[in-house]
Design goal:
The chain is of the alpha+beta class. The chain has two domains: about 210 residues, Cytochrome Bc1 Complex, Chain A, domain 1 (2-Layer Sandwich), CATH 3.30.830; about 210 residues, Metalloenzyme, LuxS/M16 peptidase-like (Cytochrome Bc1 Complex, Chain A, domain 1, 2-Layer Sandwich). The chain is about 40% helix and about 20% strand. The chain has 17 helices and twelve strands. The strands form two sheets. The protein has a six-stranded mixed sheet with strand order 1-2-6-3-5-4, sandwiched between helices. Strands 9-10-8-11-7-12 form a six-stranded mixed sheet, with helices on both faces. The chain is globular and about 65 Å long. GO terms for molecular function: metal ion binding. It comes from Streptomyces griseomycini. InterPro entries: Metalloenz_LuxS/M16, MPP/UQCRC_Complex, Pept_M16_N, Peptidase_M16_C. This is Zn-dependent peptidase.
Length: about 450
């Protein structure tokens, strides 16, 4: 009999000793031109992330020019006093960098990622973009045309259409939050290079801006680099703009955006609640995660696993805008899609989940899984410099202390089941939710009216 050959296996790797982890703390400083700088040394992160926050919020846009902040943000990478748009793009590519920019309610944010070995070049390019953007007529016209081309596609997207309608329903017409962040066809069509430059000159200056730099800064004289690049950006001094209060009407009601023949109904159910300054936020995050934060949440367990109505339903809280005095608001919402015939039954079951939650509460097991998922994965979530920089930038935008994220994880781990239950029940009261449905009104209106979750109105899809 032939003997079987034996194999020598390499010893199985063993887990090392667990090391304590905390969200990294930044160092804070100010350049001579007034620019606030947060820096965070992350050994081994050879791609450095830079976030620059500008105090140019959407509510500062001139009347009738909604979207000018977005066009300005996009135009920052379309040429400077030193480079044309094509040359600027080529310079970014030569140093292996990417530069993105977007506008939101708190302001405009530029995001740069660049290899640490080419940090000086990358900082020089973003400094040029901020210091002397070209805002050439032809480039702004192209960006406006591109934006106009995007709008019909967004309106055709059920989730985007639902978000637009929910904002319109929740906030008064006089509030910038009631209108699309990137403008409408009417407002964007009126934007030109003169309007973009006027907005830039009025709101973009280093004295009210913040730069966040995260990555491996070994051997880097960051003070000198910043002084030679972002430090050359000049502008007048000014106080940050006052933040208007967030006013919303969450009277329970239903709005159906009619899409005749739609085979699915897009659901977006929301209201406005506390933001991260409120002491209830950690418990609210935990409770909301138990409700709809993952595949094992209550909403998914009922609507997806038991009933098969949907591929997934999510509950979440998204900060809208915060003020320096600690006031602010967040959007608390539930989103998903269901097949058209089961729209009524799915909503009925969703409300049953909310009512059961109020009556019976969360379980300790649900709370423990949520803590494990939210806190336990944090070291993986923040492996990259970009993830750390983005979170630090969020804290700046929301006027939070530099140690907020680290403290949040500690609070999440210490939050009990009873606290999480109370927070999520208060976040999603069954009689104070605005429900937007994008679907076939002829088929879903009557079943939804029978639920008694609020007055039902139908609007055209546009």
């Amino acid at each position: 009999m032939t003997e079987l050959a034996t194999m020598d296996f390499h010893p199985q790797p063993q887990a090392g000793e667990a090391r304590p982890w905390a969200f990294p703390a930044p160092e804070r400083g100010t350049l001579d031109n007034g620019l606030t700088v947060l820096r965070c040394h992350r050994p081994g992160q050879q791609v450095v992330a830079v976030e620059v926050l500008l105090d140019a919020p959407l509510d500062a846009e001139p009347t009738g020019l909604d979207g000018v902040a977005t066009i300005m943000a996009r135009a920052f990478s379309e040429g400077t006093d030193k480079h044309s748009a094509e040359e600027f793009a080529a310079e970014l590519e030569r140093c292996g960098a990417t530069l993105d920019a977007h506008a939101d309610h708190p302001g405009v944010r530029l995001s740069l990622e660049v290899p640490a070995s080419r940090l000086a070049k990358g900082l020089g390019l973003i400094a040029d973009a901020l210091r002397a953007p070209a805002f050439a007529d032809s480039e702004v016209e192209r960006l406006v045309r591109n934006r106009l081309d995007e709008i019909p596609h967004e309106l055709a997207n059920p989730s985007r259409r639902a978000a637009k309608e929910l904002s319109k329903e929740l906030f008064p017409a006089s509030s910038r939050m009631s209108r699309p962040r990137q403008g409408t066809e009417e407002t964007v069509a009126g934007i030109d290079s003169a309007a973009v430059r006027a907005f830039y000159e009025k709101h973009v200056r280093p004295a009210t801006a913040t730069a966040v730099v995260v990555g491996d800064l070994t051997g880097v004289d960051l003070d000198a680099l910043l002084g030679d690049t972002l430090g050359s950006w000049t502008g007048s001094t000014a106080q940050p703009r006052p933040v208007p209060p967030v006013v919303a009407d969450d009277t329970g009601r239903v709005v159906i955006v009619d899409r005749p023949g739609a085979v699915q109904t897009q659901l977006l159910i929301g209201r406005v609640g506390p933001d991260r300054h409120d002491r209830v936020w950690p418990a609210q995050v935990l409770g909301t995660y138990c409700l709809g934060g993952t595949l094992t949440s209550r909403l998914d367990r009922v609507l997806r696993e038991e009933k098969g109505y949907t591929y997934g339903v999510r509950a979440f809280g998204q900060v809208l805008r915060s003020a320096p005095d600690g006031t602010g608001a967040a959007m608390l919402a539930i989103s998903g899609s269901v097949d058209t015939p089961n729209t009524g039954p799915a909503l009925e079951d969703l409300w049953t989940v909310l009512r059961t939650l109020a009556a019976e509460g969360l379980t300790d097991a649900e709370r423990d899984v949520a803590v494990q998922n939210l806190v336990g994965v944090a070291p993986l979530k923040y492996e990259t410099a970009a993830a750390v920089a983005s979170t630090l930038a969020d804290q700046v935008e929301q006027h939070l202390p530099d140690d907020y994220q680290a403290e949040l994880y500690r609070q999440l781990a210490a939050t009990g089941t009873v606290e999480a239950t109370a927070a999520v029940v208060n976040a999603f009261p069954v009689d104070r939710l605005v429900t937007v449905l994008v679907g076939d009104a002829a088929r879903i209106k009557a079943p939804v009216e029978a639920l008694g979750i609020g007055e039902v109105a139908v609007v055209a899809a546009e």
